[in-house]
Amino acid sequence: MIVLACVFGVLAVVFANMWLANQRSALAQSNGAQRDTIVVAAVPLKFGDTLTADKLREISWPSGAIPTGAFKTTKDALAGNGTRQALQAISTNEPVLTTKVTGAGQRATLSAVLAEGMKAVSIRVNDVLGVAGFVFPGDRVDILLTRQSRGQDGADKSFVDVLLQSVKVLAIDQVADESKENPTVVKAVTVEVSTKDAQKLTLAAGTGQLSLALRQAAASQGEMTERVTLADLTGDTPEDVAKRQAELERQKAADAAAAEERKRAEDERKRSDAKITGLAQAVERVGDQIDQLSKVKPTVASAPQPQEVVKEVVKYVQPEPPARATIGVFRGVKLETYDVPRQR
Question: Is residue 52 assigned to a domain?
Fold first, then answer.
């Protein structure tokens, strides 16, 4: 046991010396490697910040590992006719690359963020269609289209299609800063799409309702999708949905016919009430006329004053009142007259 312990101890010392020698050799090689400088952000930068000397600094960097588009000196980053602005959020000590800032004298506009051959298209959303305001510039979303179409049986059918997948969000309303963190309910979302996809979005906005589905940050690849209809919600077959729709249409037609019948009966009742009211008024008018006729007294002519006649005497005889009288009676809207004896 003592011999084995001595052997293992010697081996441990030998291996330790070999490891230390390798580390010293690697350190010597790294110290001897050629170094260069690149420009990094001295303070956090956000979209639209102007690059100035106090916001940038130079650090040492291996010559063979300089990122593409990096500036070697602060003078190079500020060179040109005009200032540069940040196109996206840049953290402290993060290399400042040409793809993250504008050209000299350019403004940090949405057009500067667009990739080559891509277009910016805005779609209208609300608190529900826009994922309750949790969509931020730089996120990836799927765009869904909900619409209706009339089938061969004449019934309207609703369905949802995935119109576009993994679309980059450029701005929400008029904010294009990717460092924005607070959720905000917006009315419009601007996305980056190709020319053909821009045509699809413009056409789809007029034929149905567009909504957004937020994707996982690392899920940039597309996936297989299929159309979702009302039958998928309940598990019914298209025939079951058609039968249910037909039954609803029949019930709707029956309710409409019943309502029409009730309306017709009500109109008939109103007309009957109007006729009865008219007859009652006519009878009342006839009664009034009879009362007025019964109150009329015959007029008697006054006796003339006797005059002295020399040769003849004139004697006045009072005429008899008429023995009969004429009265009128309304029967409905027709007036009938009767000749009746006068009562004395």
Answer: yes
pLDDT in tens, 128-173: 666 666 788 888 888 888 888 776 666 677 888 888 888 888 888 7
Distance between CA atoms of 220 and 151, rounded to whole angstroms? 36
Token reading at 134: 């949790």
Alpha helices in 212-298 (DSSP H): 230-234, 238-294
**CATH number of the domain within which 40 lies:** 3.90.1210.10
* Cβ atoms within 10 Å of 309's Cβ, excluding its own: 8
Q: Using the 3D structure, point to which of 206, 235, 264 is the last residue of a domain.
A: 235
Name the pTM for this structure. Answer: 0.46
In a domain? residue 21? no
Contact call for residues 138 and 177 (beta carbons, < 8 A):
no
* SS3 state at 16: helix
Helix (H, G, I), strand (E, B) or coil at 257: helix
- Check if the beta carbon of residue 298 is closer than 8 Å to that of residue 325: no
